[in-house]
Amino acid sequence: MRVFPWGFWLLCVASAPARGDSGSKARSCAEVRQLYGAKGFSLSGVPQAEISGEHLRICPQGYTCCTSEMEENFANKSRSEFEAMMKEAGRSVQATLTAQHRSFDSYFQDLLNKSEKALYDAFPSVYGELYTQNVKVFKDLYSELRRYYRSSNINLEEALNEFWTRLLERLFKLMNPQYHITDEYLDCMVKHAEQHKPFGEVPRDLKVKATRAFIAARSYAQGFLVGSDVVKKVSQVSLSHECTRAIMKLMYCPHCRGMSSVRPCNNYCLNVVKGCLANQADLNTEWKYLMDSLIVVADRIDGPYNVDTVIGTIHMRIAEAISNLQENKDSITAKVFQGCGNPKISTKGSSSEDKKRRGKVTLEAKSSAQALEMLVLDAKGNLTALKTYWITLPSSLCSKKVMASSASDDKCWNGMTKGSYLPEVMGDGLANQINNPEVEVDITKPDMTIRQQIMQLKIMTNRLGNANIGNDVDFQDTSDDMSGSGSGDSCPDDVCGKRLSKSPSTRQPETHAIPKQSGHGVNGVSSRSLPSASLLLLLSVAVIAPQHLWR
């Protein structure tokens, strides 16, 4: 006999309109009218006092200050405002990455410019015709180095080899003006002279060090741009219909219910935002790999690859090579004549510039190692801070933008009324949203734009991994990067060895293939609590006399 009073009481509670503390008197809608007008909407048709809410399709259908038109307008407004929040958060990350790229790019270009200027300033007075008649060879070298750094499709080793070959041909002719040397003879000369290292060890040593430095610098600079571009494109992904409804319920339904001063429950906000940004959270794994890879390459740039010394002293290495050739001129010439025969005597005599050509250039390297060290330290700090961007974004938006209440608040907006929020907070990523009580998420349909950006992160991480071990990668040909990328092993052990060694299988559970439709969702569907089933829930509770009500 105790069932009837319990059931009758609960049904009365369920059917009674929620009017807060105002008793039977309809509350004023002045606060909602003020908010509605501030958002740019006409106040025509906006209720002065609460009305019955059976017409509402998103907010709870109790007494309300919102008409159907107001609810629709608020829903559209909440969508645009949330997307603006996403873009604003993204712009902050873009600004950080772009600033890091700009700083390093300026530093690196300055190194090249100073080296080239030092060469142009010192060589004419020391080498005379050796320089003035071959200035284009030097200009072409620096031009090729810049083109390579800017990601042009150039083979750096071939460009350096071509420079030394052209330089040797021209210097050999200038140092032997008494002979008539044809192009055919020069071809033979180059083949024989290379065996005897006319420039000493400089070409080989510079090729090894410069290629490593340029590969690392180019990949490093490109990594910042790719990261920034990924954030920009992901921030522009539109919200789903289900997400728009959930955001509206979170942000504006309390106003419609006359609870404008009540802040959303923190965990409620987290579940809404995690459901809306489920696909974005799946960027986390590859994003962290990119940040880690940039940090490792930054250490290479400021450490073993010694970019400051290698790039800043290119002109000095060239001068050293020319001096080696001058010192070994007679022996090199004799060996070339022995292999290629004696060229014909020229009618032209020795140049008056001969003494200048035999001079030695004295150059000083102005180190900017301290500037590079500061750049790298600043970059590593920012990259470390950005590692968890995608999985901390929901809590950041809830606390700073939605202004959710504290986690312990039991008098917050929980989606239905003022009270506590009982459901647990969902995990991060698409697969973890199957039981999200606030946003209906189809985990079998990942967002293709975001999947494409995950692939871009993998490709860039792979390039940085190659740069870390001194391997060149063609930035215009990504066919090799695309093949086999589904395995998720895009971060080489050299780059990510520390994290891989700690947990060799950590990447497997977070692969980015489309989740299977079976295995996760069977139990989850029946466990979702649907608003339309609230009356049935209360009837069931009445029969079993529960101690707790849902929300």
From TrEMBL:
UniProt feature, compositional bias: Low complexity: 481-494
Biological processes per GO annotation: cell migration; negative regulation of fibroblast growth factor receptor signaling pathway; regulation of protein localization to membrane
GO cellular component: cell surface; extracellular region; plasma membrane; side of membrane; synapse
One function term, GO molecular function aspect: fibroblast growth factor binding
Main function: Cell surface proteoglycan.
Protein's cellular compartments: Cell membrane; Secreted, Extracellular space
Top-level taxon: Eukaryota
Protein name as it appears in the record: Glypican-1
Family (UniProt): Belongs to the glypican family.
Keywords: Cell membrane, Disulfide bond, Glycoprotein, GPI-anchor, Heparan sulfate, Lipoprotein, Membrane, Proteoglycan, Secreted, Signal
Broad class of the protein's primary localization: membrane
Disordered: annotated span: 475-526
Secretion signal span: 1-20
Mode of membrane association: Lipid-anchor; GPI-anchor
A Pfam family per the record: Glypican
